[in-house]
Specification:
CATH class of the largest domain: Mainly Alpha
Radius of gyration: 21 Å
Strand order of the largest sheet: 1-8-5-4-2-3
Structural class: alpha/beta
Shape: globular
Largest sheet: 6 strands, parallel
Order of helices and strands: HEHEHEHEHEEEEHHHHHHHHHHHHHH
C-alpha cells in the first residue's frame, strides 16, 4: 500500500467520482516527530492538545520541536476514560483564541476526533501526532463524538499532516496495537455490508475503493506474528494500513468503506457501557470480536431454506420497550433517529425474496466466524474474554438493536427483518 500514491487521488474513477484527499504530509517512520519543525513552517501560534497519558508519551518532544511557535497547551486530565462529549469540546473551544493558527493533537482516537471537530468548527488546520496504531480514523473526514449520549459521526476536515513516529507506536500499550489490527480485520464485515446494501438498497459503491480496502486487510492479516513481537516494520505496516483506510474513507466522503455492522456492535457496547457505567473494550478490540459475531449472523441467514416463508412484521410496542430497556437515558434519541429514517416502515423482505440468490452469494463471500476467530487468536485475543465481559444477553441484544444507533444499512437489519 503506497500512501504517496493514495494522496495523489484518482480522477475519472469508474464509479463516476473523482477521489481526492487534501492531506499534505503523512510521515510514518522512526524519529518522525523531528519533522515537525519543518512542516510547521508558516505557522506561528500553535495549540497542542493531548491528555495526561498521551502527553507523557511524546508531548514534551512535540513542544520542544515547535519551539517559540507553541502558543498554548491543553492537557485533558480525567480520572477515567476521556469521552469526546460536549464538556470536552467546550474545554477545547475555550482554548482556541483568536491568534491560534494551527491545532496539533497528540494522541489517537479521542484526541484526534476532538481536534478534528473543533478545528473544522473554527476553520483552522490541524495536525495529528499519533501515539498508537490503534484505529483507522487518523485520515478520515468523520469525527466520532458522543453528543446527548449518542455516538454520532460529524463531517469534518482531514488533518493537514499525520506524524507517526514508529518508536512511539511500537511502545504503545499492546491492547492498542491489538485494537488497530482488529479495526482493520473488521473490514471483512463492513465491506460485505457495503455490497449487501448496494444490492438491496442501490447504495453507491466504488469497486476501486473496495479493492484497495481489501488490499489493506490482506496486508494486515500477515502482520500478526510481527505485531506480537512489536517488530518495528510490522508496526509501521499496520500504521500504513490504518492511514490508507482513512484516506479511502475520505475518497468516498464517509466511513462506508471501513464501518458496518461490526462497528455498530462496537458503538452499542460503548454507549450502553457509558449509560450503565459498565466496562467496555477499546474500540478496535470490540470491532474485532464483533466481526466474529456478524459472521455468525451471516451463517445463520445462509441456513434459511425458504425465503418465501418470510414476511414483514413489526411490533412497534415491543420494539420501543426493548429500546428503552437497553438504552435507558438515551432511548428517546435512538427512537427519534429511527423515526426520522423511517426504515421500519420499509418492506425489505419483499426485496430479499426477489434477490435472495444474489444475497446468499454475497453473504457466503464473507469469511467464516471460525476464520475470524482464528485471526483474533493470532493477535493474542481470547473470545472468552468478550463473552465474559458482556454476557449472552447483552450480546444477543446487540444483534437486534445495535443497528438502531446508526443510519446505515447492514446485515443487522437483515437479521432483524428475518430472524428476530
Amino acid at each position: 500500500m503506497n500512501i504517496t500514491e493514495l494522496l495523489r487521488g484518482k480522477t475519472n474513477c469508474l464509479c463516476g467520482k473523482d477521489h481526492v484527499c487534501p492531506i499534505k504530509h503523512v510521515i510514518i517512520k522512526e524519529n518522525a516527530i523531528d519533522e515537525l519543525a519543518h512542516i510547521t513552517a508558516g505557522y506561528n501560534n500553535i495549540l497542542v492538545v493531548a491528555d495526561s497519558n498521551t502527553f507523557g508519551v511524546c508531548g514534551e518532544k512535540v513542544t520542544v520541536a515547535l519551539g517559540d511557535k507553541l502558543a498554548d497547551t491543553l492537557i485533558y486530565n480525567r480520572s477515567g476514560v476521556l469521552v469526546p462529549n460536549e464538556e470536552a469540546i467546550s474545554e477545547l473551544d475555550a482554548r482556541v483564541a483568536g491568534n491560534i493558527d494551527l491545532i496539533i493533537g497528540v494522541g489517537s482516537g479521542v484526541i484526534n476526533d476532538l481536534c478534528k471537530h473543533v478545528s473544522h468548527k473554527h476553520r483552522l488546520p490541524y495536525y495529528i501526532v499519533a501515539t498508537a496504531p490503534s484505529m483507522d480514523g487518523y485520515a478520515s473526514k468523520g469525527a466520532a463524538l458522543i453528543l446527548d449520549g449518542m455516538k454520532v459521526t460529524l463531517n469534518a476536515n482531514v488533518p493537514r499532516a499525520i506524524i507517526a513516529d514508529v518508536d512511539v507506536l511500537a511502545n504503545a500499550p499492546f491492547e492498542m496495537i491489538q485494537a488497530g489490527y482488529g479495526d482493520i480485520i473488521g473490514k471483512y464485515s463492513c465491506l460485505n455490508d457495503w455490497k449487501l446494501s448496494h444490492l438491496v438498497n442501490g447504495e453507491y459503491l466504488c469497486e476501486y475503493v473496495m479493492d484497495l480496502t481489501y488490499e489493506a486487510v490482506a496486508d494486515t492479516v500477515s502482520l500478526a506474528d510481527g505485531l506480537n513481537r512489536r517488530d518495528s516494520k510490522s508496526i509501521e505496516a499496520l500504521m500504513v494500513a490504518l492511514v490508507a483506510v482513512g484516506i479511502l474513507m475520505a475518497y468516498v466522503g464517509n466511513s462506508r468503506p471501513a464501518s458496518g455492522s461490526e462497528h455498530h456492535l462496537s458503538h452499542y457496547f460503548e454507549i450502553v457501557g457509558i449509560v450503565r457505567g459498565e466496562e467496555y473494550f477499546p474500540h478496535g478490540i470490540d470491532v474485532c470480536y464483533s466481526a466474529i459475531e456478524t459472521a455468525k449472523l451471516r451463517e445463520r441467514l445462509l441456513e434459511i431454506e425458504d425465503i418465501n416463508a418470510f414476511s414483514t412484521h413489526f411490533d412497534r410496542e415491543k420494539y420501543e420497550q426493548n429500546i428503552r430497556r437497553i438504552y435507558g437515558s438515551v432511548a428517546d434519541e435512538v427512537l427519534a433517529l429511527q423515526d426520522r429514517l423511517g426504515w421500519y416502515d420499509v418492506d425489505r423482505v419483499a426485496v430479499y425474496r426477489q434477490k435472495w440468490s444474489d444475497i446468499r452469494a454475497i453473504l457466503a463471500d464473507c469469511p467464516s466466524s471460525a476464520y475470524m476467530l482464528e485471526l483474533t487468536q493470532k493477535i493474542g485475543m481470547s473470545y472468552d474474554d468478550f463473552t465474559a465481559l458482556y454476557g449472552e444477553k447483552k450480546i444477543s441484544d446487540a444483534h437486534l438493536y445495535a443497528k438502531d444507533l446508526k443510519d446505515r444499512y447492514s446485515v443487522l437489519w437483515m437479521y432483524f427483518d428475518l430472524l428476530k
